[in-house]
Amino acid sequence: MANTDSVNVRVLSLNCWGIRYLSKHCPQRYAMIGDMLCREEHDIVLLQEVWSEKDYLSLKRKLACSHPHSHYFKSGVIGSGLAIFSKHRIHDTFLFRYSLNGYPYMAHHGDWFGGKAVGMAILNIGSLTANVYVTHLHAEYCRDKDSYLPHRVVQAWELQQFIRHTSAGADVVILGGDLNMHPEDLGNRLLRSYTGLRDSYLETAKFDGCEDGMTLIADNPFISKKELLPFDKGIRIDYILFKGSSKMDVYCDFMSTTKGSVPDHPFPYSDHEALTAGLRLETHTTTETGRDSQSKNKDSAAGKLAELVDIVTEARTEVKVGLHCAQSMRYTAKRTGVMGLALLFLEVAIATVPWLALGAEQPFPRTSFYLLAALCFAILLTTFLLYIFYTIELKSLQGAEDQMRLAVGSLQEKLRGFPLAQPHNAQRRPPKAHEPSAFDPEE
Amino acid sequence: MANTDSVNVRVLSLNCWGIRYLSKHCPQRYAMIGDMLCREEHDIVLLQEVWSEKDYLSLKRKLACSHPHSHYFKSGVIGSGLAIFSKHRIHDTFLFRYSLNGYPYMAHHGDWFGGKAVGMAILNIGSLTANVYVTHLHAEYCRDKDSYLPHRVVQAWELQQFIRHTSAGADVVILGGDLNMHPEDLGNRLLRSYTGLRDSYLETAKFDGCEDGMTLIADNPFISKKELLPFDKGIRIDYILFKGSSKMDVYCDFMSTTKGSVPDHPFPYSDHEALTAGLRLETHTTTETGRDSQSKNKDSAAGKLAELVDIVTEARTEVKVGLHCAQSMRYTAKRTGVMGLALLFLEVAIATVPWLALGAEQPFPRTSFYLLAALCFAILLTTFLLYIFYTIELKSLQGAEDQMRLAVGSLQEKLRGFPLAQPHNAQRRPPKAHEPSAFDPEE
């Protein structure tokens, strides 16, 4: 399928770990990143964790010649951390903030303050329209007891919705970012199956990089090996995904990652490895559509639909677990608040009743009285804020669950349109281990 | 252009004013609304301010036969209030929460708690795909000194972005809702110009309803006439907008509104009037594309682009006003916080220094000490929360402003592609009298 009309697009994705004053060697690393981007001249650069706008602006100045077009997505308290640099004109941008993103009181995890989101930029690559997405999902701090899993699943759900619904007019779709999910994690399967996005690591013709395409590796000097356990060599959580359209086919010719160090420099660009994918866009050539191939296509479409039903059902279960947790947290907040109120009433009663009834000297020590009252007010305020927060969380989880239920119903309806396609199998096929599905039910 | 293949779609939009226990005659009005919807059998029903899920569920039960498909959009603390009922299958839904929506401490206005959003449902009408949107923007409490204007403009900006980017695959687009904007308000012009949505009141062949299509009228018994002033008869702030696609043409055959009362009932359905639009969808027939018409089309496209540049620039100015306000509010919060902290230090110093230095009896009255300390802590906590809140507001406003600047640049770039089209007019059209345009060619 060699085509002289092909367009080559090189894409880089990097989580910059750019927390000013906290991330190690932050200014030096930004200087290294800027030099590398200037030199390498990728078509599209997708950065995450550029937490300070100043760092974005200094990169923008440095890349003014190599990447004249750029956009920084603002969100949350300290920003979304998402930035895009491009050789091609960006003619529109749009930001979708995830409805759930951790808890504000988990300040040491900091995700809530980051205002995690997915940013979209619409680029013109020659005469083609490319929808480019950059995102960063909630981190996974403990794989065994991952209390953020429902939040991340809802983020993956919203990410696939956003991409599916906004990319209908695009010739090519590219997503890069730190998904904080392993390749076969639920959210990742949901994203790939529903959008039809393909993983450049799995699709590439040539690969040069870390073993198994890992992007958070034990050999990186900024990584604490303990935190990676039980994955002693590392994990793959950063991705460049892509898909074509009815008009364009997309192929991944090569892919590479950095390997935990940068030649001639004392440390790497970041705690994550940088990913580069070389994509080739070619005008779609229609293949034969004989009866056999049509029937085969139908079978495979039905199989993929059935798989998708399974995945969405699994996601629904996970969201329900989150719902249960949020409900019990809200209940706890409510109960604690009621106890605080009761304590306050009790205190006021003890303090005032003798004065009212006996007129005797105040028996309640003043210091204790005020300290206790302050405690009660603090409890009331905290539990009130928590109650509001958990209510918002509940609404978001319920909303996602409703949408998933509706989606499953709609997918099953579609499935009934394939009466001959593997009736047993299609209705509830167990998900396969690692099948990179590229099915787009919208098509 | 009579076409036998036409499809008729009747759409209703109603702000239900459904605040349990607070809105007058709420249960009776819901019963009336349910009866009417059952009887009228509109194809699509778009409801706003259905604040309680219980009310949605009871409507759902009542409409199970006439409208088997429905969706309730959940968001914020008490929900988005948005619901959709349909005779046609809803096969996908998506919710976009506006990044700005008033202030939580303006509890008596309540908008913040509602989690205002735009809900999308994808319907199959026969073989056609309809993208149906329902929304409710921030209320306008005082037209002369509308402190929420920047928020509403950003909402209108995000609404047009959402519709534009998600409707590429649709054959027909329908938006219904309470926009809380007059027909020629900035946000409304922005929405209509950018998306190409047409106003059914302006497009309808037949109209039956209130004067000037008003939807909040003085004759409605739930309306306080004072609040409407200076518009003594009423205002038009609810809309049904629509557009077709390259495949389908859409026409509005008739439109109607209720008129402040319902026959045989003591009061109307709501404080807002209900809108009904009869839309006719027809397969698009290509018209002649002679040279003259092409050149005319180009001229009109350039004119529209130039107008859009003006509108986006005006919106940008409004957002900048909001930015300025948010910045000064954040500064005030910061300053007050610092003063609270200084007061606390002063108090601690006064209380502890004599004890440290002189060992004398505590000179600071205990009661005052604790009360003052509590006050300081309250100030610190409140200003801290406000600071965080205003920072989020600033980020959202800055984000919208960045996107608008990029959009203006991109539109101007497009405009340069029309070299012959009204060179003076198109490149820099003087703003109209009532259109305080602040053209800022920053790019």
Automatic annotation (TrEMBL), chains A, B:
Main location, first listed in the record: membrane
InterPro entries registered for this protein in UniProt: Endo/exonu/phosph_ase_sf, Endo/exonuclease/phosphatase, Sph/SMPD2-like
Transmembrane stretches, start-end: 338-357, 369-390
Occurrences of domain Endonuclease/exonuclease/phosphatase (ranges): 12-245
Catalytic activity, reaction form: a sphingosylphosphocholine + H2O = a sphingoid base + phosphocholine + H(+); 1-O-octadecyl-sn-glycero-3-phosphocholine + H2O = 1-O-octadecyl-sn-glycerol + phosphocholine + H(+); 1-O-hexadecyl-sn-glycero-3-phosphocholine + H2O = 1-O-hexadecyl-sn-glycerol + phosphocholine + H(+); an N-(acyl)-sphingosylphosphocholine + H2O = an N-acyl-sphingoid base + phosphocholine + H(+)
Location of the region described as Disordered in the Swiss-Prot/TrEMBL record: 422-443
Membrane topology recorded in Swiss-Prot or TrEMBL: Multi-pass membrane protein
This protein's GO CC annotations: membrane
Gene3D superfamilies cross-referenced by the UniProt entry: Endonuclease/exonuclease/phosphatase
One GO BP: sphingolipid metabolic process
Similarity field: Belongs to the neutral sphingomyelinase family.
Protein's UniProt name: Sphingomyelin phosphodiesterase 2
Organism per entry: Perca flavescens
